[in-house]
## 1
Amino acid sequence: MVCKEENGMKKRIWALALTAVFLLTACSGGESTTGDFSVTAGEDAQTAAASGLTLSMRVPETLNPLRNRDESVDRILKLMFLPFIGQGENGKPEGGVAENWTLSADGMSLAVNLKQNIKWTDGTSLTADDVVFSYDTIVGSEEDAVYKNVTNYVASCTKTGTYSVTVNFREAFSNNISALYFPIIPAAHYQGQTEMDSAANMNPVGNAPYRMESYTMASSMVLVPNESYSGTVPNISTITVKITGSADTDDYSFSQGILDTMVTDSTSAGRYLAADDKMKGTAFDAGVYDFIGFNFGRDLFQDKNLRQAVAYVVPKDYIYESVYLKYAEMSNTPVSPASWLYEENVAPYNYDASMASTLLKNAGWADSNNDGVLEKEKENGTKEELRITMLVNKENTARNQIASRMEEELEAIGFEVTIDAQPYDVYSEKFATGDFDLVVGGWKMSEVLNLAPFFVTDGDYNYIGYSNEEVDQLLQTANSAIGEGQTLLAYSNLQKKLAEELPYVSIAYRQDVLLTSSYVGGEIHPTRINVFDGIEYWTLQQKG
């Protein structure tokens, strides 16, 4: 998977496929108190961990969600801070601290009315000042802060009333609103206190279902229900957050029953669930899109018959069951099936080796010398054999499995295939420079969906060299659509065309799994953007 910051056509709004580098630093100091919580150093927090829910995160350098740079810390802070505009399980904007919103006719601004019943844990009301302050804090945050990419979409945020703001976008873009999923923090508490070493940054004042009761430096944090929260009162009365050093530590701690939850991939999930039938695993979209790509720099794959022949021998049932262990949503387009924008009614290319052979025959390919490899006579009288290389990165076990099976399937219909398994750095270079025939690849797709970088002519991530004027126009229409109806229609038309054209053979969107111990019950609905979404509806049996 190649991940880097995107530039190019409409640079600010292109998908952000980033590998974030998290800098973890331990905090030190004495003791401070603010409101109903305390921060201490050098001793364990006095908690009811034995009877409460136990989660984990890395050592936080800050508990200000807008300055934070660590994903594990962000997950925990979501329990204490509501987003500006939330997202449903299908990624559609909804809820948060926003009551409703209206997009301008030109798509350049959004008028937002805020809910008027939201209180901070110090008893004060959330207002427009807090939203404006939150955006300004993001602007001043480090480049690798979790929510820094908001500034790629939003130019400014202005107060228009006590409970109303206007968000001005940098460009009219169909999915701008999806970029507004960032936490709101109280201006009065953090004003002049947003530096990493400020007292306020380690003393969170939030507005979500939980509040911090205590934090023991580099050891643990205790959360309890937020009495000021206007929504559903959480069922679980105590959450202890253990400070752990790595994902490996989380794995060990979960296996020993120290932690009640762990987010993991399909392989680890299968191992745990096979060992303990009382444990639960809830899958959710990981945002990783796997595909087989064609090199359009080769005349061979300019022929749609060849691309379709490849598509018809992708063994999706085998891949779903044996490679992904059923933790994936098989997809026929580059849009996640979990998304509200996914179009189901496209050409599915169900497995059909006979159809693949027919397409090759119709394109003039035949095995005239009975050596098992098809050939075709060229205009100059010479014969071209159907020999290809398939690029894959050797560290990715799943994609190597796919490549090996595809080698078998393609050779069965007359291809000669050489698998080019390379270390990630070499693989990335070869992919980016077009040194392949077929590639088994994947992209970490942005939550703010934009397919242009991958398929538009000369797009930054268009490593396959694909160019189609109609697709270029459909991409532009999808990106410039204004309003829900226009956006749905534009993405429907785009996906139908991509499924017909096959610049990629879409395989699947992989899923991660939220594992929960046998003690945890209730309604568990993790999402890609918030694995603890709806945690107030979880239940916990008595431990011990």
Note: The chain has two domains: 31-260+517-540, 285-511.
## 2
Amino acid sequence: MAKIIFFGNHKGGVGKTTTTFQVGANMAKLGKKVLLIDLDPQGSLSKICVKMVNIKNTNDIPVQRTLNYLLELYLLKFRRITKLDVLENSEVLKTDENTKNIVKNSIYKSETEKGFLAFIPNRIDIENSRINDLAYKMSRYSMGIVGLSVMIDDIIDSFEDGLDYVLVDCPPAINAIIESIFLKSDYFMIPTIADDISTSGVADYISNINKTFLRFTYESSVGGLLLEKVFKKQPELLGILETMYKEIQSPSSSAIMSSLNDQLIEINVKEPIATKKYLRYNFNIYNPNAKANKSYILDNKIHFLNNRTTKGKEGIPFFTDKATAHEEYEQITKIILNSIGV
């Protein structure tokens, strides 16, 4: 079964979309079969991905071949079922062949030498059916989250040659759709810049993931057996990824990351699944008061590379805009693959 990883942070502009695409592109380059899902209302990941299949604009994609269409379809299909319906007969979670064909038709794919990078585009111009609109509709029906779970399962099952990873680009704001992704995912990673604004919401973001599980566990119409039946265990943190790193960092940047690490220790976040050789344990160099022997920050960093700072070499923005894998993300991709072991 494909592993689901989401990338999120309460702060925008920290490299979530770039990281989602670049990790996916590098996975595909390494022979993995990868699907990208764009849940950000801005649709930036979709705008990148359509270039892989020579489509100029997401607005050119037929509405019935979009993520918006699938979300509304599954929301409508499952909004009326009850917890009792599912517990009495799990067949109610199965969809018909027509629905499965709609799912297959919504998937676009770019082949690599041994793997592929697939995506389902998100259109931002569909009135009353943009991602935020659909999240609001889902929030009105407690069983709407079940529809999203079944949709993800049907998408994964539609890949006849198998699928290794589903990577989800999440927006800064948490809504009903994003909460469903929290429940459905296996792992998550938080990209951040080493500044006060970008890191200030990281601990809160992780706390919200935990609170989502608690809330749905004790929510009478969903929690308990149904949550166990339809969703997964709480997703595991892969690590905090520092992006836009500059070789000449100010001492305050290192102190900020050290402080973030301390915050995560304070709220007792479960340690990342990345092995210790991938984590940064030298915070005491920058902060004598830092707590030792526990780190959430990945030692590997994504450097600030653009066309001006990297003379004679196109930077990450250039490669991402061209929907091409950049070697800067190759190592972090290998860390993810080694940590998960798929």
Note: The CA atoms of residues 275 and 339 lie 7 Å apart.
## 3
Amino acid sequence: MRAPTGTQYPLALGPLTATVTQVAAGLRSLRHGDTDLTEPYPESATPPSGCGIVLVPWPNRVKDGAWDHDGTTRQLALTEPARSNAIHGLLRYRPYELVEHTASSVTQSAAIAPELGYPFVLDTTVRHQLTADGLTVTHTIVNQGVDAAPVAVGAHPYPKIGGVPTGELTVTVAAETHLDVDDRLNVVGESAVAGTRFDLRSGRPVADLQLDDGFADVPLVQGHEGGRAEHVIAAPDGRRIVVWGDEAFRYVQVYTSRTFATETASDVALAVEPMTAPANALNTGRGLRWLAPGESWTVSWGIRHLNFPA
């Protein structure tokens, strides 16, 4: 029998272990010793609520699945039919090809051929690499076509600290701007987070939040080449998880799920989704990267653990 997510690639480095899947190049588990650092799901299951998947060549939603390309309306498949949107790119259900698998890393590739609503030719690779303090994920996109291609990258991790109900964790999101949405979760404007329920800059208990919201204007923390966007999940005992992205990841989606099958049935799951562009970027152009023929683009994000026992 074959797992719904295809081949499973185990990784290990010191106390860290991870499992990466062939389908969607997904992160199925990440652990420090016996402690989960992300929400796991069984090998026999599909990724619940997009858990761990790669979001390429666009993250989040495209309103009505339609966008304008040089005066031509392109129509994407409506992969979120309940809201009549296209969502999370073209690789969510795609098996990747193995490039390299070592004890602590795996590199996979997937090609994007011209298809409904997206007439471009791309090669993509994803490398998951365990490090001394966590996991680094590196994406490279190469335009193999004859026309400039619009691209963006997102990821869908659900950080957690095993043994502590996620509702008891505090999440800090440094973003200064909230992306306002309609009842179909399509962006209709933006507003400063200051003084609103969307201000997560000083930390909020996850149990108090009900979100499926995008944020922009994430400041960069210096000390790393080019700076990093950082979002922090903290336990009462001082342990922390940092979801980070390089200087390209100036947007983030925060989603609280109360239907995710967590280890405590009454608990909430928290997705912190680093993105290089926000929802509907194919229409607005915001954060979108246009790759010239033959051009490549590489970006990285990751998960760090702090104050965990050695």
Note: The first strand starts at residue 8 and ends at 13.
## 4
Amino acid sequence: MTFQTLEYIIAIAEERSMSRAADRLLISQPTLSRQLKRLEDRLETKLFVREHNEMRLTDAGKIYVNGARSIQNIHEHALSDIRKLSQSGKRQITLIYNNILLPNFSVDILPAFRKLHPHTLISTIDGNASIAKDYLSNGMADLAVAATGEAAHTMLEFLPLREEELMLALSVSHPLIPFFEQHGADLSQLSGESFILNQHNSFFRTLERNILSGLSFAPDILCEISDINAAGNMVAHQKGIAFLPRSAAGQLHGCRLFSLQPPVLFQIVIAYPKSSILTGPVRDLILLLLQDAESHINGVRTKSAAVF
């Protein structure tokens, strides 16, 4: 798999034509066709079907193109960060986090950090725990806020921020809500529902796999998605059900969250390489993250929960 292959498939998807995609890529149509066939043979599934003289993505093709675009975005972000490093007089911290897990970052944490270090740039990457561990281990990021079930890591230092809970998310108009309000989330009632799950290599998918292993039926998996916000929006629009962090409750409209039995708990941690020497700005950012987590915990304790 190469970046060139990703570009080929994205071009076909956007142009909806082999000939137009080949012209755009400045290659011959037979060459492009061979590349597509080679990839489909390797994946053992079709990525495109021809409809009304157009190339249309299959469900597998949509998943592939979404993943390809994510990879391209991460690559471009990395190249941009490298270019920023050459800026004269600028220091930079690369932080990986997810908006759902750290909702106050841009409103509270970033302005407070800016006051302390006006000449230090914070470059952020939206990524899950798998991306965070990969970037930190390979020296491509300084710090991450991520979900984990591990107490320790061979290459990374973990500082606990708070305990989180993975919960069942339903649309506010879902007919099972009255039953769940009275009896709790009974997963045996979900046969026939469409499940929106996290991507297979993610920490949340590991938790979901454990949850689903106890079901007496085979779940109907609608899709795998890496964006928690997108999963919540799909639930709100009655496209399916999902498992979302408790912290999503106040950020996603149109969803109701229910605790599972037993509760599925995990940790949100600050992670950084054990081999790194923490600079003053990095230490201050860690302190601000810890202070924000403490205020979040105190806030949760003092107000009644809106979820069950």
Note: The first helix runs from residue 3 to 15.
